[in-house]
Amino acid sequence: MTFRRILASLLLVAVSSTASAALEKKKFCLYDPVGKNGPAVAFFSDLTAKGIGWGMDIEIAAYTDEKVASNDFKAGLCDVVFLTAILSRPYVPFGGTLDALGGIIDEEGLARVLKTLTNPKLAPFLTNGNYEMVGTLPVGSVYLFVNDRDIDTVPEFSGKKVSVLNEDPQSHKFADLAGASPVGTSLATFSGQFNNGNIDILPMVALGYDVFELYHGLGEKGGIIDEKLLYGMMQMISHKDRFAPEFGQNMREYILARLPDINKMVDDAEAAIPAKYWIKTDADSQAALEKFRTEIRASLRDEGVLDAKALGLLWKIRCSVDPSRGECSKPKAERF
User: Fold this and answer.
1) How far apart are CA 245 and CA 293, in angstroms?
2) Which of 57, 168, 213, 250 lies 20 to 30 angstroms, CA to CA, from 175?
3) What is the pTM of this model?
4) 99-to-10, 41, 83, 88, 247 alpha-carbon distances in Å
């Protein structure tokens, strides 16, 4: 090797070392029920390379218990945490309201919501003290998994046992208004509870069918009501003061750019569910479920659980997609 080539090699090593040293180390704590080989970690696998462009050396830490991830984040051990909207809501109420029942009802509305979140004018609503919602990852529509196909209308919910995941206020309200019995569950226990017959009704995304082997609970008698209850959301929350001001905007734009990948993942999961499990709803049942979802949103808004501004944004987007919806002519007080 010539002296010139040796010198060039040494310079390259020096530049590379300097660049690496200049990167800020950041720890992203991601909840993934499968762990380090799970779908969430795989989805965000390109963040390490993306982070270099943002001046960060990102370490991805997988957690199979989201409460532990949340506690570590709260204790300052994580710079960013990835949680269900149920646990993220106290950090940033606006972002945690995006999974409101009936808030987002179709893929077009979902796309518009994610696009709106990248509008810098909305950024003040996405912060709460030193917490910032830097990303919202939709994980598909939440459907009602039932262990008996006869549980297919709102009146049939009465007296049944409903899963309430991580003390979710929406599920509690669901049980309360339906006259059902709430059964407290966690992400570690809900599948076993459903599969063993201890729960009659389980709100869950299609991705959960395979990941949590819910076909055991469906068995021969059960099914999945085909009416969307809500769009399940995962949230990325950061300690705002640990990042450059533009980080949140960069992350939200990154999520928006990944929307086609997200939709494919969700569509594939729904397509993988055997057709025999889907319970078709008629127009009357759909109208009753729509009314039921609206009652739950109104009650939780009035109780201060759901953010009124976020609900107003969701109403506006639903009506921009379909202005003929009955709710679009409602007075301002009923636009949620």
Assistant:
1) 37
2) 213
3) 0.87
4) 53, 22, 13, 11, 23
Token look-up 């750019």 returns 257
58, β-bridge pairs: 26
pLDDT band per the 50, 70, 90 thresholds, residue 21: low
* Structure tokens that stand for 155 in this block: 């009146």
255, 46 Cβ separation under 8 angstroms: no
- DSSP H helices in 59-202: 66-74, 85-88, 93-96, 107-117, 154-157, 169-178, 190-195
The predicted model gives 308-316 an average pLDDT of: 97
pLDDT digits (tens, 9 = 90+) for 53-66: 999 999 999 999 99
Domains and CATH numbers, the chain: 23-334 (3.40.190.170)
Predicted local distance difference test score (pLDDT) of residue 33: 87
